[in-house]
Amino acid sequence: MINKFLASFVLIVQWSYLINISTAHCQSISVFSEKKIKPPSKQIISLNIGAVWGEPLYTLNYDKVIYTKGAWQLGYQLGLGWGRYTGYNSQLRAGAAGNYKHDAVVIPTSFIVSWGKRASKLDILASYIFFYTNPSIGPSAVRIETYELYSNSLQIGLGWRYQRPRGGFFFQIHFKAAFISLEHGYNRWKGKAEWRFGSFFNPGSLTVNSHFPFGVGWAFPVIKKNKSPKE
After folding, report:
1. Is the pLDDT confidence value at 27 over 50?
2. Structure pTM?
């Protein structure tokens, strides 16, 4: 009788041990799968600084990572900023003609494909930049006119970013090359404002040309490192 009781007790202990091991193993697989298949989405706020024709551009950008798979991620970037535009004015001001600076509004947008297994990633960009300012020009010594300058620039670029998988400090630097642009600006030869095309092969006709913006920011959410079950 005692032997049967001991045998039953040992059998129950063995089965309990096996069930506990199986449950822990399944939990570890589940946690691992969730981390691999459903990584947390990332949102990034960054301040970017660049320059166009030697004048600074400042933009506040919002990034959103919308898809990740392995070392690849896809996201978009929206921004709003302020800059300066230098235009030549032949109108005499304070006894001299010359270049005058004007405030400009900048709205950059980008689709970004990134590759990198760790925090350091390579970026490939397709961007659109809207640039607006309201400069003035003196077509003659006795007359001065203002006109609206619109620039719609499509750009491609390469860059590098530091983006930790768990969020936190963020840094990026990009090289963007404008390959086509549709602009509304002043034509000195015709003496009026009109629409014009620009391209990478004729950079002198582009208001927003190739440039190197860089930015620093913070990636959300910041995920604390949890202790995962031991395999």
Report:
1. no
2. 0.71
